[in-house]
Amino acid sequence: MSTVKKQVTLPIVEDKHVRQLHQLSYEETNQCIQCGYCLPACPTYKSMGKESASPRGRINLVKMAAEGKIDIKEHLTEPIDLCLGCRACEVACPVNVPYGHILESAKEVIATKQIEEKSSKQVQLKSLVLTKIFPYPARMRTIGNLTWVYQTLGVSKFVQKTKMLEKISPAMGQLEKALPQLEGPLKRTKFGQVIQAKGETKGKVAFFTGCLMDGLMYKINRQTIELLALAGCEVTVVDKQQCCGALHTHQGMKDQAKELAKSNITAFENSGADFYVNNAGGCGAMLHEYDQLLADEPEWYERSKAFVTKSKDISELLVHYGPLPFKKEWEGIITYQDSCHLRNVQGIIDPPRELLAQIPGATYVELKSSDRCCASGGIYNLLHFDESMEILDEKMKDVQRSQAKTIVTTNPGCLLQMNVGVERIGEAASIRSLHLVEVLAEACGIAD
């Protein structure tokens, strides 16, 4: 006896945003079997303890919104906005539900609706920053230069002493305090510059500078280039590169992210490099998924796949071209906090640990919760400060148990967040939070 499947026909929905959500993600939401394997991996479910703060809960809400059963603005916006986007649930999922795609689809629809309705000044400001500042490297560098002046003239110390910024925004106050001391703008690497390898040239790489890294943490970029040169790489700082588009995608601005991706693909193709290297887990994850972003544009898809194949994290290349010529003995225990997007999206787990274990004198101790998000989440810690700090405070308990004197990260947001965490436990004088590149540069004797 044959079984005939009954086809489910959804009612015709007039709301264009519901139709858009259905088109973008409904099929993927049906892949979720609601098993709950994602629950222990989700930091917001652990901290908030409610189903709407879990991956399967959010997927179910997206599904119902796509069916027109719940209101996008009233019922979906907040649960989606409270997701960190760490994508640890994807690693835990036994049936490979593409949670990241479902999340970004929901954000895209929500953002479109908010912009059309001019929902709030916060939404408009966020859109303004992402369209008028981040896509322009010169503007990001200007912000960095002004920040250096702000620090050099002592204004930063005055603001911290008077807690002026904290009174306006606790989140901004804590992050301002966590910002590392910038080095002089004259030390910036110029776009289009080619740095020769030290000794034998083993390979040619093109360096992706990133927005925040190039704007506010360019010392780490300079050290990245010097480490690559020490490892035998000729490094080109690609001209005409732009923001990777990660923040745009995370805020539902997919069209803007696509344009940035196309610009970067074109710029890096012209470099003729063997690999395209970056030093920020969040940026790297976005670059790693350019082929998914441009999958619906045949003229760009093949080019994006070639780009993804060449895109590498700094830790991968330093292991590949290494070993590094270490010159300095390290003192104390080192621990490592994974960048969620480096670990969960790019699948890079061992290379950073391998490099840290090679440092002479260093005692490496695995952080108990290294695979759990620190709750930086791009700009999550600015938009949802209290929720972010609750997760961070738990993380810092594990840091204290490790007895580490150095916390290593591989993403600018994580680095700032761990700096905030060290401040919150009152250990700023005894525990350093550093990017992997800073630790390796110091151990190799690269000058500050």
Automatic annotation (TrEMBL):
Keyword Transport: yes
The 4Fe-4S ferredoxin-type domain, residue ranges: 22-53, 73-103
Superkingdom of the organism of origin: Bacteria
Residue ranges of coiled coil: none
Cofactor binding summary note: Binds 2 [4Fe-4S] clusters.
Cofactor: [4Fe-4S] cluster
Function recorded in the entry: Component of a complex that catalyzes the oxidation of glycolate to glyoxylate.
Name listed for the protein in its UniProt record: Glycolate oxidase iron-sulfur subunit
Organism the protein comes from: Halalkalibacter kiskunsagensis
